[in-house]
């Protein structure tokens, strides 16, 4: 029975039992604490908790699920998956245990025609009611296995709804089991296949652990489509069902590897199915949240491809296979096929660069550790791989694990925190502060009544307040004096604290006998900290103070922030609606906006975006602010960042009918106050993440004026009009190209003579020709080509060449022998010259800032080769 037929039979069976058939909810979920829908019941959680009324008391569905909690096990076993389909039937205060068990057996033994003598069940050891039901349905006591709470009792949290569950297992036979026998749930053999889990939500657990019966009892069941297909199709594992096999076989066919790597085939088959559906929902690769998971899974599949000899991008080609397998049941993925292929291919290409830069370095580090008998890869090394070579922690961790090493995660975390601390310190013109959380809690408790200071600066830029706390040198004090710097916590403030990408306000704070400058403002928990410098007198705790925000700066920041919202809306309008904000910076000088998009934005599109924003500025649209619940904001269509944590009430900023976003920042009253908007750059900050930087208002005008002045200067220098500049530059380019060609020919002749000279000096070491030489005044490209030509000319050879000037030297090594790898040789030579290098076994390159050491280093090449031959 094929997967499509199993899915259809399940849903039809429960539809005939009075269930409402619900379509699969999206993989991306807004359920608190989850990035993805990880189980069939997730879309119905609010119904189970009584927070919402279900559309029917009986529901059935086939839910697409995605989870990565067991990512390292995917490929190791026959049944762990990231992406899978969960068939389920649900009762909300309707039927309970009798019907659930009866219908489960009716479907499995009847519709699916699985012999009941091949079935076993597990139950919670204290659930006599379910034991009695299974006995009545024909299960002998020997096939009803009682288990403890950890195996057969479900709860969503430590407190709340919970209840026993019962699982149905298919028995593949004793020959598939453990030698000394085992029972359902054994994870040491492949005898038992769990095909259905029935959860009976009948209790409420309180803080003391006491269980009380729920007034309405619910049923939540889950049958993995992939596992049921394995049983019904009589195959060895999930990957040989029709839900995987076409993809599995395709990867096997395109792999040049002579030995089948079962784990790699499984990983790629699993991950590629999930990627097609995630990308189909518009969840693009990025460095945060869901996008980070997509990138991690894609890169894991790509890396396992290398184990099969697939060193070039290949995953994108498998999208077609997934669509052929699943497009009939899920036609939405076919509509996104081309875009999905484009994104995956670009990510693969980017990852190939990352791997080529760092993999050999990590492998060398692991090799050195293992040779010295060490078992732990340091956090410093993992961080260097992350920071310098773009290796995510999970990638380094998995490579280390495969080599039999553990990774010092705490050390990595310390390095990350140190980097973040330094980044924070430099964020706001080098004066951003960090605070001990215990200090903040003390201030919240003792000075703010547990509620924190109140920000009241949306409507007013000048306010009076009472000083609640004073901090100097990260300790609480009673006063702060002239010339000192520290932080004040005030009962009410008009100063906007840095947050949501917007920098903080600055301004003045004045007391009866003191005056200070507010340099920047931060929020920590519920505490708003004003970093001040006392200009005159002294401030004491409980003093009343008057605070005044720099109005011109506030207006400039608001101009940038409202422009950011217009830019976001324009991007979604011109590019596509699934463009998502990935980060931003809003200050009085400029704005920066990061967004998800798979490729550089074309010049015409950038021009159209800029024109659209300026059109909306000229229309002088009204900017309106509303307060409402997040749910209401979503209903109205307001854009909110998935990864942000919002309070119960949120501010919605609406610019007429053009833009509507959840935002806590400060804004203009009308779009016309922006004046002018100008994009100054568009660039990539990570794979799938683009960045636009722009100026607005007077700054935009001055930038355009500066461009105009430069253009005028160019016309004067090259003595042509503006309209003739391009033709004149093309003419000069052609002249330069002609001169370069002449120079290249001269160099080629010189180089050929030098190569002949170096070749004639080659030493023969056990049948291998070894030569090295310095070639002056040629490009790195020409040097690389010369090394390859010389290697091919000499046959079994190792060649080292260098080109240098007074300050630096470029070195290349080419080898025809895997036992004399070029990447090892370059490291030996580079170390002798005080430099560094790396590359592949057949070709590597490096450099040094000590060209005077080249001759001595090259004299050592023959001895280095002899030692390597001796070791091998």
What does this 3D model show about the protein?
With 872 residues, the protein is of the alpha+beta class. It is 40% helix and 26% strand. Strand 18 and strand 19 form a beta hairpin. Helix 7 packs across helix 8, helix 12 runs antiparallel to helix 13 and helix 17 crosses helix 18.
Summarize the structure.
This protein is of the alpha+beta class.
Give the topology, please.
Blueprint: H1 3-15, E1 20-22, H2 45-48, E2 58-66, E3 83-92, H3 97-111, E4 119-124, H4 128-136, E5 144-147, H5 149-152, E6 153-155, E7 160-171, E8 192-205, E9 211-224, H6 225-233, H7 245-254, H8 262-280, H9 289-307, H10 319-326, H11 332-335, H12 337-371, E10 376-377, H13 379-389, H14 393-402, E11 406-407, H15 409-427, H16 437-446, E12 454-455, E13 462-472, E14 475-477, E15 479-481, E16 485-490, E17 492-493, E18 507-510, E19 514-524, E20 527-540, E21 544-549, H17 551-574, E22 581-586, E23 591-596, H18 603-618, E24 623-629, H19 630-636, E25 649-655, E26 659-662, E27 677-686, E28 689-696, H20 698-718, H21 725-760, E29 763-765, E30 768-774, H22 780-794, E31 797-804, E32 809-815, H23 822-832, E33 836-839, E34 843-848, H24 854-859, H25 861-871
Parallel strand pairs: 1-2, 4-5, 10-11, 12-17, 30-31
Antiparallel strand pairs: 2-3, 3-9, 4-7, 6-7, 7-8, 8-9, 13-14, 13-16, 13-21, 15-20, 16-20, 18-19, 18-21, 19-20, 22-23, 23-28, 24-25, 25-26, 27-28, 29-30, 31-32, 32-34, 33-34
Helix pairs in contact: 3-4, 7-8, 8-9, 9-12, 12-13, 13-15, 17-18
């Amino acid at each position: 029975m094929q997967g499509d037929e199993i899915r259809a039979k399940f849903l039809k069976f429960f539809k005939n039992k009075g269930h409402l058939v619900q379509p699969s909810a999206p993989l991306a979920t807004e359920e608190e604490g989850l990035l993805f829908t990880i189980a069939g019941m997730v879309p119905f959680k609010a119904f189970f908790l009584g927070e919402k009324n279900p559309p029917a008391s009986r529901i059935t569905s086939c839910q697409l699920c995605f989870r990565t909690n067991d990512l390292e096990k995917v490929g190791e076993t026959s049944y762990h998956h990231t992406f899978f389909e969960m068939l389920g039937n649900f009762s909300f205060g309707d039927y309970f245990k009798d019907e659930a068990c009866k219908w489960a057996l009716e479907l499995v033994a009847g519709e699916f025609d699985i012999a009941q003598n091949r079935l076993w069940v597990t139950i919670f050891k204290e659930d006599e009611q379910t034991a009695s039901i299974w006995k009545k349905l024909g299960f002998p006591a020997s096939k009803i296995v009682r288990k403890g709470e950890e195996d057969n009792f479900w709860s969503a949290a430590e407190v709340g709804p919970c209840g026993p569950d019962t699982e149905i297992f298919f028995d593949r036979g004793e020959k598939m089991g453990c030698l000394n026998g085992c029972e359902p749930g054994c994870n040491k053999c492949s005898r038992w296949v769990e095909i259905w889990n029935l959860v009976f939500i009948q209790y409420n657990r309180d803080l003391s652990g006491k269980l009380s019966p729920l007034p309405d009892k619910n049923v939540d069941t889950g049958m993995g489509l992939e596992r049921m297909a394995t049983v019904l199709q009589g195959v060895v594992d999930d990957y040989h069902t029709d839900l995987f096999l076409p993809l599995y076989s395709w990867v096997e066919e395109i792999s040049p590897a002579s030995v089948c790597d079962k784990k790699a085939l499984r990983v790629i088959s699993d991950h590629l199915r999930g990627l097609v559906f995630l990308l189909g929902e518009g969840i693009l690769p990025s460095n945060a949240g869901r996008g980070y998971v997509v990138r991690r899974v894609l890169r894991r599949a790509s890396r396992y491809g290398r184990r099969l000899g697939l060193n070039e991008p290949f995953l994108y080609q498998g999208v077609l296979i997934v669509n052929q397998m699943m497009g009939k049941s899920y036609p939405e993925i076919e509509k996104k096929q081309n875009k999905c292929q484009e994104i995956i291919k670009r990510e693969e290409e980017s990852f190939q660069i990352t791997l080529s830069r760092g993999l050999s370095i990590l492998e060398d580090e692991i090799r050195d550790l293992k040779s010295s008998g060490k078992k732990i890869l340091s956090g410093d090394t993992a961080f260097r791989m992350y920071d310098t070579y773009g290796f995510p922690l999970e990638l380094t961790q998995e490579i280390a694990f495969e080599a039999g090493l553990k990774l010092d995660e705490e050390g990595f975390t310390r390095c990350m925190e140190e980097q973040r601390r330094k980044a924070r310190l430099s964020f706001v013109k080098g004066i951003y502060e960090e605070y001990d959380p215990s200090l903040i809690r003390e201030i919240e408790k003792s000075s703010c009544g547990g509620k924190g200071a109140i920000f009241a600066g949306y409507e007013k830029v000048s306010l009076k307040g009472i000083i609640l706390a004073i901090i100097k040198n990260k300790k609480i004090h009673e006063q702060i004096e002239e010339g000192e710097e520290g932080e004040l916590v005030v009962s009410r403030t008009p100063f906007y604290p840095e947050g949501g990408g917007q920098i903080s306000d600055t301004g003045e704070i004045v007391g009866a006998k003191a005056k200070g400058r507010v340099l920047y403002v931060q929020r920590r928990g519920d505490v708003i900290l004003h970093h001040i410098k006392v200009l005159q007198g002294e401030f004491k705790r409980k003093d009343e103070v008057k605070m005044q925000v720099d109005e011109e700066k506030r207006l400039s920041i608001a101009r940038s922030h409202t422009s950011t919202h217009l830019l976001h809306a324009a991007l979604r309008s011109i590019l596509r609606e699934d463009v998502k904000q990935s980060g931003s910076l809003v200050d009085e000088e400029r704005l920066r906006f990061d967004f998800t998009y798979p490729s550089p934005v074309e010049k015409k599109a950038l021009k159209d975006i800029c024109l659209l924003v300026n059109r909306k500025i000229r229309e002088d649209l009204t900017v309106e602010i509303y307060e409402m619940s997040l749910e209401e904001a979503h209903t109205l269509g307001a854009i909110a960042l998935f990864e942000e944590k919002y309070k119960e009430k949120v501010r919605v900023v609406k610019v007429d009918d053009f833009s509507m976003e959840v935002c806590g920042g400060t804004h203009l009253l009308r779009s016309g106050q922006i004046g002018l908007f100008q994009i100054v750059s568009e660039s990539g900050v990570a794979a799938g993440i683009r960045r636009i930087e722009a100026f607005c208002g007077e700054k935009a005008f001055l930038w355009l004026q500066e461009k105009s002045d430069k253009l005028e200067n160019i016309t004067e220098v090259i003595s042509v009009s503006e309209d003739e500049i391009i033709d004149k530059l093309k003419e000069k380019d052609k002249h330069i190209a002609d001169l370069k060609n002449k120079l290249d020919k001269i160099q080629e002749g010189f180089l050929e003579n030098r190569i002949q000279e170096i070749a004639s000096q080659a030493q023969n070491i056990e049948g291998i020709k070894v030569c090295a030489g310095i070639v002056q005044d040629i490009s790195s490209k020409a040097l690389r080509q010369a090394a390859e030509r010389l290697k091919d000319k000499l046959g079994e050879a190792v060649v080292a060449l260098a080109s240098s000037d007074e300050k630096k030297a470029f070195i290349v090594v080419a080898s025809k022998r895997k036992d004399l790898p070029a990447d090892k040789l370059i490291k030996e030579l580079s170390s002798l010259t005080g430099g560094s290098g790396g590359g592949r076994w057949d070709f590597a390159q490096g450099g040094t800032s000590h060209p005077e050491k080249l001759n001595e280093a090259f004299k050592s090449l023959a001895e280095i080769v002899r030692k390597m031959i001796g070791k091998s």
